[in-house]
Amino acid sequence: MMLSAHELACERGERLLFRNLDFELGNGEVLWVRGGNGHGKTSLLRILCGLSVPAAGAVTWRDQPIKTAHEQYGREMAYVGHANGIKDDLTPVENVRIAAALGGRGLDDATARAALEQLGLSRCVDLPARVLSFGQRRRVALAGVMTAGALLWILDEPLTGLDVHGVAMVEQMIRNHVVAGGMAIMTTHQPLALDGLTPKILSVGE
Question: Which of 67, 126, 167, 187 is the most buried (most CB within 10 A)?
Answer without folding.
Answer: 187
